[in-house]
Amino acid sequence: MRHTLPISTGIAVVLLAAACGGGPPPPPPGPDLDSLAAAEAAEQALTDSIAQAQAVRDSIDRERVRIEADETRVREDSIAAVRGETTRVRDALAERVHYDYDRSNIRAGDAAILDQKLAILQRNPSLRIEITGHCDERGSDEYNIALGNRRALGAKRYLTDRGIAEDRITTSSRGEENPAAMGANEEAWAQNRRGEFTIASGGNQLRMPTGM
Amino acid sequence: MRNAALVVLCLAGFVGRPVIAQDSIPVEQGVRIGITYAPGVRPGMLVLGGSGGGDRTTALDSARTIITRDLHYGDLFEMIVLPMGDSLSLTIGRSPGEDGDTAASHVPFVNYALYRVLGADYAVDVSVDRDSSVVVTLHDVAGELTKREVRIPNLNPNERDFRMRVHRAADELVRVITGVSGIAASQILFINAGRIYRVDFDGHTVEALSPEGQNAMSPVWAPDGHRAVYMEFQEGLGPLFMLDLDTGERRVLPFTQESLNFAPAFSPDGGTLAFSRAGDDGTDIYAYNLADDCCLQRLTVGGFSDNLSPTFSPDGQRIAHVSNRPGTPQIYVMASDGTGQELFAPFDYGVSGSSHAPEWSADGLSLTFDRDVGRVPQIFVMEVAGRKVRQLTSLGRNYDPTWAPDGRHLAFVSTRTGSQQVWIIDMETGAVRQLTRLGEARLPAWSPRIPERLN
Known about the structure:
The structure holds 2 protein chains of 2 kinds. By secondary structure, chain A is of the alpha+beta class. Chain A has 2 domains: 4-23 and 31-84; 96-201, CATH 3.30.1330.60. Chain A contains 5 helices and 4 strands. Chain A has helices at 4-19, 33-94, 111-123, 141-160, 186-192; strands at residues 97-98, 128-134, 169-175, 194-201. In chain A, strand 2 (128-134), helix 4 and strand 3 form a beta-alpha-beta unit. In chain A, helix 1 (4-19) packs antiparallel against helix 2 (33-94). The longest helix of chain A is centred in the first third of the chain and has 62 residues, at 33-94. Chain A is rod-shaped, with a radius of gyration of 37 Å. Chain A starts with a helix and ends in an 11-residue tail after the last strand. The model of chain A is unreliable at 1-5 and 7-22 (pLDDT under 50). Chain B is mainly beta. Helices cover 14% and strands 36% of the residues of chain B. Chain B has 5 helices and 29 strands. Chain B has helices at 2-15, 57-73, 86-93, 112-118, 162-178; strands at 44-47, 78-79, 122-128, 134-140, 145-152, 187-192, 195-200, 207-208, 216-221, 227-232, 240-244, 250-252, 260-266, 272-279, 282-289, 294-298, 307-312, 318-323, 330-335, 342-343, 355-360, 366-373, 376-383, 388-391, 398-403, 409-414, 421-426, 432-434, 441-446. In chain B, the strands form 7 sheets. Chain B has a 5-stranded mixed sheet with strand order 2-1-3-4-5, covered by helices on one side. The longest helix of chain B is centred in the first third of the chain and has 17 residues, at 57-73.
């Protein structure tokens, strides 16, 4: 509504200019050069005042656009900041853990990865995650579903033992069905024996735990 | 008759040779099997060639080919292959009715003496009767008599069940000879590219049964031979589906909708479905009463171990399964109510590798499973009574064995040729043959003998 007042003012100026044309009232009969000039002057004044009002309005519009752009920039900067943090937390959350052949225990070297997820879950109380266990292609296809499930449970237990509520973590298994790396060699198998962490809910805005 | 006499003369040259193409398909290279092979005791089987048949020629030729292969793949007979092909078979097969009696022209000319010379104990003739039925006749060569005539009316090679009807005729011949029906009228389900496939016992008629773009696993046959249950991965869950194999209709089993279920098994009466469920306590075996559609029962409580892959004994009283309570997964057994769990297939602690995928044979005498030998899975069979375990394969990776209904053949997955395919082994002779030749086949399940659907 801020712009309403100046525009009404502009209109008032125009009306005023039209009303007090400037010259004496013309005599009713016959043409009068003076009155013609006066009418031209009045018309000129009217045109000038319209241009003036338009200029005022334009400057107001420019100002408004500038202010809005400023506001948008500020908003986007803060969104970018939040989003950047969320992305970094998500990346940290997505880091996989790996397992030994036919084992579901957390490797000593992978504890730090789970500690990071623990901190993230503590910092973001509405965050819920799903852990999915995967296996390499060795072992029976069906046993690997059970093994993947146990791997996911092992990672979950690490977190719940450290205070995360059970209902914030669901587990599942894909057995050997979704290998991360193709190939029938130890390098590929080692990558495929893994736990993956995905956000189930509450992951739109995530805060980075202090110290990460 | 003159021609037949000529043939006999020609054949005189062969009589001295003890072997007339004993097995037309040689045993696959490189397979070493821990099986006692008693050679030369199988009865000789001669499938007679033939000609004629008029408008039934196609059906006749197809039926003859199918029956020959069925008898060969059944591994019960020494198949006798004639060295000279058609010129011989024509004369051996039938008389042209030279006495002018046209009514007798459909009656095959039988030369038992000749068949005996060829080494045949049985001879099979496939011909067309006056009413256009295909007639499969089994001759007992030693007794010089006809043992059985199987009539297949209205046999049309373009009909969907054509091959199955011929397979059933072949199975009937086997039943007459051995007392037990053959296995030609059986099929194998398996997984390829996330879909359930079905293939006939002879490798023919490969057909996808479940939708594309899914991740189906664990197909098993219902004992009626007309339905199957399998699982499909769905967003972290694994519901089980009941599939009607005749109509293709499928429905989810509601009691498996909210969890990750796999490796199901029907009880022999079809009334109970046991299956594995992976959950918050690990993986355990559950049973559902299909007959009354109720009463989900948990049969194992693993705690820190997983229990999975149930398989019923044919009397329905026991369930063998996999348990990893000894550290590595091994084969256990329990009563069908979950009590009395104990180790089933003996293993050397710290030496024997993981054991998986047990399946009880239909006769109850044997249990097959795969076990890692040097981290490479191989097919094993345990004699249930004495709990003696022996290894059947050693070439490539071999796993997920499944019994044929005769308790003598096994289908299993093998990588012996580089690609992962389903193979069949005959435990008596050690003969193996490749069943599938597409993509990467796995998780085979051999059907019972499939009866004709009664509609």
